[in-house]
Design a protein that fits this description.
- The complex is a heterodimer.
- Chain A is of the alpha/beta class.
- In chain A, about 40% of the residues lie in helices and about 15% in strands.
- Chain A contains 14 helices and 17 strands.
- In chain A, the strands form five sheets. A seven-stranded mixed sheet of chain A has the order 2-10-9-8-7-3-4, with helices on both faces. Chain A has a four-stranded antiparallel sheet with strand order 13-14-17-16, with helices on one face.
- In chain A, strand 7, helix 9 and strand 8 form a beta-alpha-beta unit.
- By secondary structure, chain B is of the alpha/beta class.
- Helix content of chain B is about 35%, strand content about 10%.
- Chain B has 16 helices and twelve strands.
- In chain B, strand 4, helix 9 and strand 5 form a beta-alpha-beta unit.
- In chain B, helix 5 runs parallel beside helix 11 and helix 6 packs across helix 7.
- The two termini of chain B are about 35 Å apart.
- Classes of the chains: A alpha/beta, B alpha/beta.
- At the A-B interface, helix 1, helix 2, helix 3, helix 4 and helix 5 of A face helix 2, helix 3, helix 4, helix 5 and helix 6 of B.
- The complex binds pyridoxal-5'-phosphate.
- The site of pyridoxal-5'-phosphate has 13 residues of chain B, from helix 6.
- Chain A: It catalyses: N(6)-[(R)-lipoyl]-L-lysyl-[glycine-cleavage complex H protein] + glycine + H(+) = N(6)-[(R)-S(8)-aminomethyldihydrolipoyl]-L-lysyl-[glycine-cleavage complex H protein] + CO2.
- Chain A: Belongs to the GcvP family. N-terminal subunit subfamily.
- Chain A: One of its GO terms (biological process) is nucleoside metabolic process.
- Chain A: Keywords: Oxidoreductase.
Chain lengths: ~475, ~500
């Protein structure tokens, strides 16, 4: 059994003496006897460090990670390359082990990181106010919905069907608590249906929620959608993939009020879904209603530049039930990875990365849709992800490719009944032309083996 | 910072180079043309961007990210790191936050590629190790809580609280009941009432009895059929175990409300008593407190919840389940579920660390951790009850404490003319992190101290000696504490000015 305590038997005796009790047991006298567990916890016995390591190594070995296969799976998190300098910095005790910076005099490192992070997010989104992080992408959408509710108190929220299914479900869950209803705006040709949005809009709509690029990979005409929402005084919330924001018009320039998103792809590993971070940026008028920590610049008594947590009268520890959010612990370390990553890419690198993704994605889209039995699900412009229709049993195709060491992507049928034949394919900078070609060849074979007309025979051939 | 320090108020410099850097930001280090990133070669046709994406959708000016080289980035952030105090370096008795040691093994196992590069939407068939780990963690947490069902999904304590109240709402709605109020004691952490509002309920405060527990008469008066839930932590934020918890549970259940356990204080009772056995229906855990996930300067954490049988149908989606054939799966087919609280399955990387911790300690080790946490807290309390300290910083409750305790700085303020804030700031010059200050709100000039089980007796002795020294010094010259700190990277900062004229990003 491992232990991380340091109290020896002699220490314990001395400490009990100082306290004036005979036993540790006596310190628990307030706990009624009937409530005592009265037995050991029924857990496996403690292990030595090397045993725990071996056990966890064995468990990890039973996962097929992006290390083990060529992965085209995205749908909200991406196998992007995490540069080595990130680990070297975020594993430093000084960043890894402090609490939230409640004592600014000894937390200037973390506070300045927040300030630098806020600046980067503000630049990416084109919005002046960023907080220091929220949990992750979909709950950031929920938090944005709550900000809209606090702002205008209206009862309805319209969410595009192009918004990540997890975001829509999270928004639904949270809004049920704070008392809004969520309605869906359908997609047409891979993008949010502008006419349907117009028809659903009215003066009781609190917010319109969009995603850029949307779940099918399409670049949305955010400016046009925003303009119609504004006619009814609704706020516009846009969930953005941050890497494409390097080349796409920033939401702040399109009239979006609140831009949120999943930050994983900014220097954070996949980690089976977390921890990553959510970013949250908004127009100036929302500064005093923002959720979460915000770092601000100031000076100390000697006139030295410094940073503090600021605008805290929004927050739960000051305002309690009147707070604009309940968030406390957020994702500071992951946001640090984010700002290091963005600094590593730099002003030009972010654009170069975006351009590389667009070009490789265009190549992959053309290469894959040239396969017999594979068509584009939509023709909308895309950045790093696109949707296909397979004239074949998608599950069987995905399984066959998995057996060949390729993760073909996300089966859209998992969350869209209308796209049961859909496959969502993601390209990261780690997917070379050679890998895309290999994928295309394998996909051609698998689709041929599992063509819809011949599913029965194909399934046999696939084995 | 060195433990022994120069008592002279105007100590000119800290011992660590770069701590007094001029706070140059990464943007101010930017020089056009510098770079770290080298893009992989373009191995596909180079087509003009506007041919692929209509020009009107494209950005016209690049985001003004810094232009810096790799060595500069590394040096910048390493220098910044030296302007942080951290748990690996010094004592951090921040009450309610459980700043216990973060075992180093955990970073190694969380970083194994099979964990770190595992995609959250990987087919469960090909993520069996991860799902087995999550299932094992669920079972362990259920055993610690004394409640049968666990969802790992919430991302932090406050997210777990929100889950708990949404579960409560779903439970009552399922029974055709509409309830509007949630009770929170006046000792509650700020996230409790804030969560109540976000979940669409009205907060009703319950008072505290002279012994530090819930005022049971006040509770009885306020508990009626309009109440959905009572949120409580036990031991509470005063470090006091509520002896009346069974009666409290009876009152709450008597009106059909749920009893919610804020697990921030679980470090006192692991393996000794269990929230489920006390009558709680819903519990959240802070894996970044009792279960050693490093705090990261403000996250990440994770806030799993454990619930009783009657709440189980409403748990968030997906649930990690073990199928009849022994394989593990994600169950999305939960018709009464409140839905999702976030994307994917939760903060898995945190689960890996907490699971490793539980496997390292086992049941006996967890109990030992809690016993030692309580021993350490009571020992520190005993040291601070001695002459020279107790007159100025009396314990808010004259009884044994659990894993943390509260002192009041009111006599210190009155007699010595220094406030709790001043004491905290002077502690910084001694190289220790101050306790939580001005919380709980109930105690005037409060200091909440939680030493945790991983500290040595010598550290506690040293801390008590430092407090006594600061009080002695204040008796001679209170100005020293009032103007502290002196040796830190910066001194007291103008927080009011920062809030009045917020500068929250670098102008570029
Ligand atoms: C008593 C108590 N409850 C709730 C919380 C909220 O937890 P979290 O910060 O993980 O949201 C905290 C800590 O911050 C706490 O100390």
């Amino acid at each position: 059994m491992s232990t991380y305590t340091s109290v020896t038997d002699a220490d314990r005796r001395a400490m009990l003496d100082a306290i004036g009790v005979d036993s540790v047991e006596a310190l628990f006298a307030d706990i009624p006897a009937a409530l005592r567990l009265g037995r050991g916890l029924d857990l496996p016995a403690g292990l030595s460090e090397q045993e725990v390591y071996a056990h966890l190594r064995d468990l990890a070995a039973r996962n097929v990670s992006a290390e083990d296969e060529v992965s085209f799976l995205g749908a909200g998190m991406y196998d992007s390359y995490v540069p080595a300098l990130i680990d070297s910095i975020i594993l430093r005790s000084e960043f890894l082990t402090p609490y939230t910076p409640y004592q600014p005099e000894i937390s200037q490192g973390g506070l300045q990181v927040m300030f630098e992070y806020q600046t980067a997010i503000s630049e990416l989104t084109g919005l002046p106010v960023s907080n220091a992080s929220v949990y992750e992408g979909p709950s950031a959408v929920g938090a944005a919905g709550y900000l809209a509710k606090l702002t205008n108190g209206r009862p309805r929220v319209l969410a595009s069907r192009g918004v990540h299914p997890h975001s829509r479900e999270t928004l639904e869950t949270l809004s049920h608590g704070y008392g809004q209803t969520v309605e869906e705006i359908p997609l047409t040709d891979g993008v949010t249906d502008l006419e349907a949005l117009k028809a659903a809009l009215a003066d009781d709509v609190s917010a319109v929620v969009l995603q850029q690029p949307n779940f099918l990979g399409s670049v949305e005409d955010v400016a046009a959608l925003t303009a119609v929402a504004k006619e009814h005084g609704a706020l516009v919330i846009c969930a953005c993939d941050p890497i494409p924001l390097g080349i796409l018009q920033p939401p702040g320039e399109q009239g979006v009020d609140i831009a949120v998103g999943e930050g994983q792809t900014l220097g954070n590993r996949l980690d089976f879904g977390g921890p990553s971070f959510g970013f949250f940026a908004a127009a100036q008028e929302h500064i005093r209603r923002m959720p979460g920590r915000i770092a601000g610049e100031t000076t100390d008594v000697d006139g030295r530049r410094g940073f503090v947590l600021t605008l805290q009268t929004r927050e739960q520890h000051i305002r309690r039930e009147k707070a604009t959010s309940n968030i406390c612990t957020a994702q500071a370390l992951n946001a640090l990875a984010g700002v290091i990553y963005l600094s590593w890419l730099g002003r030009e690198g972010l654009v170069e990365l975006g351009e590389l993704l667009v070009r490789r994605t265009a190549y992959a889209r053309e290469r894959l849709t040239a396969i017999d039995g594979v068509t584009a699900l939509h023709d909308a412009p895309v950045v790093r992800e696109f949707a296909l229709r397979l004239d074949a049993d998608v599950e069987a195709v995905v399984e066959q490719l998995a057996a060949q060491g390729i993760n073909a992507g996300y089966r859209l049928g998992r969350s869209y009944d209308e796209y049961a034949d859909g496959l969502l394919v993601a390209i990261t900078e780690q997917r070379s032309k050679a890998e895309i070609d290999r994928f295309a060849d394998a996909l051609a074979g698998a689709v041929a083996a599992h063509r819809r007309a011949t599913v029965g025979a194909g399934a046999e051939a696939g084995r | 910072m060195s433990a022994t320090f120069d008592k002279i108020a105007d100590a000119p410099q800290t011992g660590i180079p770069f701590q007094r850097d001029d706070a140059t930001t990464i943007y101010e280090r930017s020089v056009p043309g510098r770079r770290a990133f080298a893009a992989p070669p373009l191995d596909v046709p180079e087509r003009p961007l506007a041919e692929l994406i209509p020009q009107r959708f494209l950005r016209t000016t690049p985001a003004a990210l810094p232009e810096v080289s790799e060595p500069e980035i590394v040096r910048h952030y390493n220098r910044l790191s030296k302007r942080n105090f951290d748990l690996d370096t010094g004592f951090y008795p921040l009450g309610s936050c459980t700043m216990k040691h973060n075992p180093k093994l955990h970073e190694r196992v969380a970083g194994l590629p099979g964990n770190a590069r595992l995609h959250p939407l990987q087919d469960p068939k090909r993520a069996q190790g991860a799902l087995e780990l999550m299932h094992g963690l669920q079972e362990a947490l259920a055993e610690v809580a004394g409640l049968p069902h666990v969802s790992l999904q919430p991302s932090a304590g406050s997210h777990g609280e929100l889950a708990g109240l949404l579960l409560t709402r779903a439970y009552h709605e399922d029974r055709g009941e509409k309830r509007t109020k949630v009770l929170t004691p006046d000792t509650a952490h700020g996230t409790n009432p804030a969560t109540v509002t976000m979940a669409g309920y009205e907060v009703v405060k319950v008072g505290t009895a002279p012994d530090g527990g819930v005022d049971v008469d006040d509770l009885r008066a306020k508990a009626d059929e309009s109440v959905a839930c009572l949120m409580l932590t036990n031991p509470n934020t005063l470090g006091v175990f509520d002896r009346n918890i069974e009666e409290i549970a009876q009152i709450v259940h008597g009106v059909g409300a749920t009893l919610y356990y804020d697990g921030a204080n679980l470090n006192a009772i692991m393996g000794i008593t269990r929230p489920g056995d006390m009558g709680f229906d819903i519990v959240h855990f802070n894996l970044h407190k009792s279960f050693t996930q490093p705090h990261g300067g403000g996250g990440p954490g994770a806030g799993p919840i454990a619930v009783s049988e009657r709440i189980e149908p409403f748990l968030p989606k997906p649930q990690v389940v073990k199928r009849g054939d022994g394989t593990f799966d994600l169950d999305e087919d939960r018709p009464k579920s409140i839905g999702k609280l976030r994307g994917f399955q939760g903060n898995y990387g945190v689960f890996v660390r907490s699971y490793a911790y539980i496997r390292s300690l086992g049941g006996a080790g967890l109990r030992d951790a809690s016993e030692t946490a309580v021993l350490n807290a009571n020992y520190l309390l005993a040291l601070l009850r001695r002459a020279g300290v107790a007159e100025y910083l009396p314990a808010a409750f004259d009884r044994v404490c659990m894993h943390e305790f509260v002192l009041s700085g009111a006599p210190m303020k009155r007699e010595l003319g220094i406030r709790t804030l001043d004491l905290a700031k002077r502690l910084l010059d001694h190289g220790v992190h101050p306790p939580t200050v001005y919380f709980p709100l109930l105690v005037d000039e409060a200091l909440l101290l939680e030493p945790t089980e991983t500290e040595t007796k010598e550290t506690l002795d040293h801390f008590a000696a430092v407090v006594a020294e600061i009080l002695r010094e204040a008796k001679e010259d209170p100005e020293i504490a009032r103007n502290a700190p002196y040796t830190t990277p910066v001194r007291r900062l103008d927080e009011a000015g920062a809030a009045k004229r917020p500068v929250i990003r670098q102008p570029l």
